Amino acid sequence: MNDLIREFEEIVTDELNLIRNESIVALKHVATGKYLSSIENIHYTTGSKSQVAFVSSQIQHIDYYKYLGINSGSYKSPISEHTEVSCGEYYHTDWKVNHSRLENSQRYLKSNDVVNLSTKKFYDNNGEYINDGYEAFLRSHDIQFSIGNDTFQELVCHNERLGGNDEWCIELIKQD
Question: Where are the alpha helices (DSSP H) in the chain?
Fold first, then answer.
């Protein structure tokens, strides 16, 4: 009987942590423990000159209908020169979410799942179109760059081998 009660409690807990349409989530970078963030009035001074996307120890993105994306994908990040990631109003970037660990490969997402995020990139870093495109993964690392007096931890897309810098933990903030 105790096993049945324990199983029921696990099912209820899982149900409460499911990510659904319209859920509000935060993405926490596993390797650094920092959150995917953006600040509306801070823009790259190079590349796309779009709103900066970065990782921070605090969640700094407020819902103002901006989307995470890679523009045409031809802009380089400020320091490592991978693909620049930014926030904007017009992005048509579809992000693919994959569980990064085999033991978590269920068909749904829940709070605290560790994932890799990728998008299809159709332009190389020289602006040349690539017919079928290729998968580019969201990564952060300890590389920092400055805009004015502010320092930010770089956020990029890349098509290299996946590792710990490519893992993101989904944290449920609000479920509708």
Answer: 2-16
